[in-house]
Structure formats: structure tokens, C-alpha cells
Amino acid sequence: TRPRVYNFGAGPAALPLDVLEKAQREFLNYENTGMSVMEISHRSKTFEILLNNTKQDLKTLLQVPDNYKILFMQGGGCTQFSAIVYNLLEVKKQQLPEGEEFNPPLDYFITGSWSAKAADEAKRLYNNVNVVIDVKKSNGNFGSIPPKEEWKLSGSKAAFVYYCDNETINGVEFPFIPDIDPSVPLVCDMSSNILSRKFDVSKFGVIYAGAQKNIGPAGVTIVIVRDDLLVKPKSINDQDKGVPVTPTMLNYKIFADNNSLYNTPPMFSIYISGLVFEWLLNQIGGVGAMEEINKQKCTKVYDLIDKSKIYRSLVDKPVRSRMNAPFRIVPEKLEKEFLAGAEELKMVQLKGHRSVGGIRISMYNSVTLEAIDFLINYMIEFEKKHT
Ligand code: PMP
After folding, report:
1. Structural domains in the chain plus CATH codes
2. pLDDT by residue (tens digit) across 138-165?
3. Of 92, 107, 114, 165, catalytic
4. Closest to 214 measured CA to CA, from 346, 64, 60, 58
5. Beta carbons of 301 and 325 less than 8 angstroms apart
6. Cα 341 from chain centre
7. What is the pLDDT of residues 55-85, one digit of tens each?
8. For ligand 1, atom 2, which residue shows the shortest CA distance?
9. Complex ipTM, two decimals?
10. Cβ pair 211, 71 in contact under 8 A
11. What is the secondary structure of 319-361 as a DSSP string?
12. Atom of ligand 1 nearest to the CA of 11
């Protein structure tokens, strides 16, 4: 059997070995039930405790204020592209005086492939999507975040402002929280950098993250939503013209009112996520400690790339992602050899996304400093061989 590898995958990504081993020990007999966690009822006391502990640990890790709900939803990050539009249009609709024309803009920052996809979905569902910035359109490619003077925000009229904190494919991460009209809910896709650094939850209306990078296995999506944005979906009869009606399974209030147990949740994914939260709290020492380690990891990687004659970063320094470092090798024909050599040394999933090409190092929370050192050593040797 193959020994465990150094996994630099962008997602599904590496999980902490401690977590996998604990799950293995508990696999056949969870909490002395004589069953695996996949075989118990989601309405059992055992699962209720698991769910509530998991929620509480996440609340502690991110210091989620009391006026927010933590939801465990399904359908991955992509389902939230639609859920956001539905839920927040319902909210805005219910704030509007009767009879007034309803067509608030939805503001989107497009800084990479994932926010572009989210904006496309919004345009499918609704006819007033406002692009605040589209970096590819203005600069020819993703890899920067233009200054505030270039943003075209709609102000207080908007139903929400949307951005993706870390663009997994393009390696672009916001070094700040965008400053917007405080009356407008700020919505953020944190699928690939949640729990990697401290941030102020109270600045946001909705935060969501698919699990399969920094949280756990694919299957569960974490949604953190402010209480005032929980509204019951109206049905089609009292719908304003052209405004979508929220499907029950995408409605945040339904999930909040039912403690994420409206239907059967992805129990195994939630269970493993809970183990990851325990690991972060007890082994790492919380998000602040994790942030320090992550900083060391990406600093090592970018320092090497910047000093190198053959590695070339694709992203402006101030907005380089701490989680995903895409780069090219000059000449590009060396990239194949680089990947094959890495593979031989048990370093896997380093190939860049097909839309960007080249190499991508993903260094999520579970990727250790030791793994990064091992990779950096290889990169140095590879460069020596080719210069
Ligand atoms: N947003 C970001 C930032 C992502 O990286 C991804 C997936 N890699 C998604 C959304 C889509 O997530 P999913 O595949 O869970 O739908």
C-alpha cells in the first residue's frame, strides 16, 4: 500500500492526520452506539449532541456573535450562488413599502473564476445585477484587485454586495473587507479560506463556505447568517413580478428554525468537520495560531518564487492568496517534468487549474510546515538543475 503523500490539492484537500485517525478509531462504534455515525438517526440524542458541539466549536473558533445563526446546508458552494439571490431578495422585498416598484440591484465584485460564476448565476435568476468591478474585463486577466476609486457600488439601494474572499483558481485573496454602505448586507464566499485567519464576523450579512478545503469532506456547506436576514419565503401568489421565490431547501430561516434538521443532513461530513474544529481548537490553539502558521507557509513559498529565475507568480503581491499559489515555470515545457518529479517524491495534486495552467500550491490549514519545507526544497533543487 502507498504511504500517505504530501497533498497540495485545491479541494477536496488534505485533512489532518489526527482527524482521520480518530475517525478510523470510531468508525464502527460511534460513542458506544454499536453503529457508525452514518447509521444513527439524525433525530437521535447522539447526533443532536454532535451537531450542537460542532456548531459551538465553530462559534468559538470564529467568535460568531450571538445575533448570527450557523447553518449546515447541502449542495456545495455553488448552491449558495442561487441561495443568496433568493434569500436576500426576499429580505429586501419584505422591507419595501407595498406597491412600490421592486428592482434593487445586486452588487458583485468579480475578482476570479468563482465570483464570476456566482454573478452569472445571479444574472440567470434576476434582471438587475450590477458589476462593481470585473478584473478580467478591465485588466485582461484575474490577478489584482483595483482600488476603491474604481468600484461601482450601488449604495444603499442594493439588496446585497457580494464578493469571494479567496479565489481558489486564480490565487487572489482580499487583504481587507470591502468598505460598503453599512445598511447593505455584505455577502462573502469564504469556501477556500475560512478558518485560516481571524476576521470580524459582525461586518457580514452572510458568510458561506463549502467544506472540502479548510473544514472537512464535501457534502456540507457552512452558512453563517445574521438574524435580521432570516425571512420566511413567500409563495408564488404574492410574488412581485420578476422576483424569484425561494425554494424551501434553500431558505435560511427554514434551516435556522429547524437547527439544520429540516431534512436529513450530511451527517458524516458534519461529524468530520466537528473533528477538524476540535483539532483546530485543541491541537493548533485556535484560528489566531493557525493564521501565524499559514503566514509562515505562504511567505516561504512566495519568497522562493520571487527570488527564482524560473518560477513566475501570476498575482499582484498585495492580493496574493495565503491558501493557493498559482505560478508558471519558464519555459513552460518544464512544468510537466516538475509535476512528474514531485509525484515521484510523494507530492501530489500540484497541477494548476485547467483555465490558468501551470502549477498551483494549495496550502490549507491541514498542510503542514514540514510539507511546505519539503516542497520548497524540491523547488530549489529543480531550479538548480535547470539554470
Ligand atoms: N467558491 C469557491 C471559492 C470555491 O473554491 C469553490 C470550489 N472549489 C466553490 C465556490 C464551489 O464549491 P462546490 O464545488 O462545493 O460547489
Report:
1. 21-282 (3.40.640.10), 286-386 (3.90.1150.10)
2. 999 999 999 999 999 999 999 999 999 9
3. 114
4. 58
5. yes
6. 30
7. 999 999 999 999 999 999 999 999 999 999 9
8. 191
9. 0.99
10. no
11. GB-SSEEEEEESSTTHHHHHHHHHHHTTEE--BPPTTT-SEEE
12. 8
